[in-house]
Design a protein that fits this description.
Strand order of the largest sheet: 7-8-12-13-14-15-17-16
Number of domains: 2
Strand content: 25-35%
Number of strands: 21
CATH class of the largest domain: Alpha Beta
Shape: globular
CATH topology of the largest domain: Purple Acid Phosphatase, chain A, domain 2
Radius of gyration: 20 Å
Largest sheet: 8 strands, mixed
CATH architecture of the largest domain: 4-Layer Sandwich
Order of helices and strands: EEEEEEEEEHEHEHEEHEHEEEEEEE
Number of helices: 5
Length: 429
C-alpha cells in the first residue's frame, strides 16, 4: 500500500522558534471547530466572522484556524504564507512554526489524478495505466441492498465525503452541481455500486431557530436522486452545532438542535433508522462471506451508543467497515471520538477499514494507513486536495478489498489513495 503522508504546503514552515499562540486545541484532521468568538490567532473557526479584527479563517493542517493576515514579514516564529480560506478563497496569513497544532504539519493529502492504479473484478485484478476510467474494475455485482442491508454476489460500494457550502446558512452557495455530478458518476460507473456510504457534514447551518438545515438537506437529497441505489449516511459535527467538539442528542450537552433533527428526519428516517448510530449487514448470496457496516455518531455520544458499539463490534463477520466523521487523528474532538476508538481497537476486536471525512481532502494517516479519508464531496477543498470525487471499494477474487479514489471530472483513479486490505485489516498488494 502507498501510505500517504503528503504535506500541506502552507503548514510546513521550517522556522527556528515559536509555536502558535496560546490555543492548544488544534485539530489535525478536521474541517472546522465552530465559532471561536474572535478568540484570536490559532482559535478554531468556521468563518472569518469568528476571528478577531485583522485575521482570516483559513484551512491549516486539515482544520480551520484564525490567523493574522499579512503582506510581508510576520515577526518571530511565523512566515507570511499563502493559504486557502474557509470558503476556498486565497489569503496571505502568518503561519507559525509547526502550524496551529504544534506538530510538524504533516497530514493527509491527495495527489493529482494521474498515475497507475489497480482495479478489481470477479476474475482478478486489472490495472489502468494513467488512472483509468470505469473499465478495468470488474463487473457489476448481482443482488440487492436496501435500507436493512441485503445480499450481493460481490462486495462493491462507493463512498462520498463532506458536501457543505462555504458559509453559515449559505443556501445559494450550496455545491449542488458538484454533488449532482458525483452521484451521476457513481450511477454510470462500472461496476455500479449497489450502495453508497457518506461521511457526514451535508450542510452548514447555524444551530439556532433560524437554521437552514432542512433547506440544505433538500438540496443534497435532490442531487442524490441522480443515483438509484441506497445511501447510508454518517453524522458529522455540522449535524450537531458545527463545532468539532459538539455533542447532540437527548440529554447531551448540545441537545437536539434543528441540524440534528433535520438529519434524523430527512436522511435517516427514509432508511428506517431512528438513531444517529446504526449498523447494516450485507452478505454474500452464496454465504461465502459476511460484512457489517458500523456507523458511529461521535457527535451524539452517550452510554447507549457505547453499549451498542461494543456489542456490534463483537459480532463476527468476514468484513467490518467502521464509518465515522472524525479521524482518529482529530484533536479537540467530540466525546465519542476517543471513546469509540477505544472500543474498535480493543483486544480481540478487528475491522477491515475505518472510513472518515471531516477533512476536505482524501488520503490516509500514517499512524493507521487502513483509515481512509473521503472528504472531497463538494465542501471547499483543502489546499492539498486537487479535485472532488468519490471512493470505490471493490472485492477482489481472493477476498481482498481494493479501494480507489475516482476523480469526478475525469473518472480516473488516483494512485495516491489506492490501497488493498484483507478482511482482517491487513494491508496487502
Amino acid at each position: 500500500m502507498r501510505t500517504l503522508l503528503a504535506t500541506l504546503g502552507l503548514s510546513i514552515v521550517a522556522l527556528a522558534a515559536g509555536a502558535c499562540g496560546s490555543n492548544s486545541n488544534g485539530d489535525t484532521a478536521g474541517d472546522d471547530g465552530g465559532s471561536s468568538g474572535g478568540a484570536g490567532a490559532c482559535a478554531q473557526c468556521a468563518s472569518t466572522s469568528d476571528c478577531a479584527s485583522g485575521e482570516s479563517c483559513v484551512q491549516l493542517a486539515g482544520d480551520n484556524y484564525c490567523l493574522p493576515t499579512c503582506s510581508g514579514s510576520c515577526g518571530n516564529g511565523a512566515a507570511c504564507t499563502g493559504a486557502t480560506g474557509f470558503d476556498g478563497s486565497s489569503a496571505q496569513v502568518c503561519v507559525p512554526t509547526g502550524d496551529c497544532t504544534g506538530g510538524s504539519g504533516s497530514s493527509s493529502g491527495s495527489g493529482s489524478s494521474s498515475g497507475t492504479s489497480s482495479g478489481s473484478g470477479s476474475g482478478g485484478t486489472g490495472s489502468s495505466s494513467g488512472g483509468g476510467s470505469s473499465s478495468g474494475f470488474g463487473t457489476t455485482p448481482t443482488g440487492n441492498v436496501g435500507g436493512n442491508g441485503g445480499t450481493l454476489s460481490r462486495l462493491v460500494f462507493a463512498v462520498v465525503g463532506d458536501t457543505r457550502p462555504p458559509n453559515y446558512d449559505d443556501v445559494s452557495g450550496y455545491p449542488t452541481a458538484i454533488i449532482t455530478k458525483i452521484f451521476q458518476d457513481i450511477e454510470a460507473f462500472t461496476p455500479h455500486a449497489p450502495f453508497v456510504l457518506a461521511t457526514g457534514d451535508y450542510q452548514f447551518s447555524s444551530a439556532g431557530s433560524g437554521s437552514t438545515a432542512s433547506q440544505q438537506l433538500d438540496l443534497y437529497l435532490g442531487a442524490r436522486k441522480n443515483y438509484s441505489g441506497v445511501q447510508f449516511p454518517t453524522m458529522g459535527n455540522h449535524e450537531c452545532t458545527g463545532a468539532t467538539a459538539s455533542n447532540c442528542g437527548p440529554g447531551n450537552a448540545n441537545g437536539t438542535t434543528p441540524n440534528y433533527n433535520a438529519f434524523l428526519s430527512q436522511m435517516l428516517s427514509p432508511i428506517g433508522q431512528s438513531k444517529p448510530y446504526y449498523s447494516v449487514n450485507v452478505n454474500a448470496a452464496d454465504n461465502s462471506w459476511t460484512a457489517k457496516f458500523v456507523f458511529v455518531a461521535a457527535n451524539a455520544w452517550d452510554s447507549g451508543q457505547s453499549s451498542w458499539l461494543t456489542s456490534t463490534m463483537a459480532q463476527k463477520t468476514t468484513y467490518t467497515f467502521v464509518v465515522r466523521h472524525e479521524s482518529s487523528e482529530t484533536t479537540g474532538g467530540p466525546p465519542g471520538l476517543a471513546a469509540s476508538d477505544a472500543i474498535i481497537n480493543a483486544p480481540g476486536v478487528s475491522y477491515t477499514s475505518l472510513i472518515v471525512g471531516h477533512s476536505h481532502t482524501f488520503g490516509h494517516y500514517g499512524s493507521n494507513p487502513r483509515e481512509a479519508i473521503v472528504g472531497n464531496g463538494g465542501a471547499p477543498l483543502s489546499s492539498n486536495s486537487k479535485y472532488y470525487g468519490f471512493a470505490l471499494y471493490n472485492q477482489r477474487s481472493d477476498g481482498a478489498i481494493v479501494a480507489d479514489m475516482i476523480a469526478y471530472d475525469t473518472l480516473k483513479a488516483d494512485s495516491y489513495f489506492h490501497y488493498v486490505v484483507k478482511p482482517d485489516g491487513t494491508l496487502t498488494q
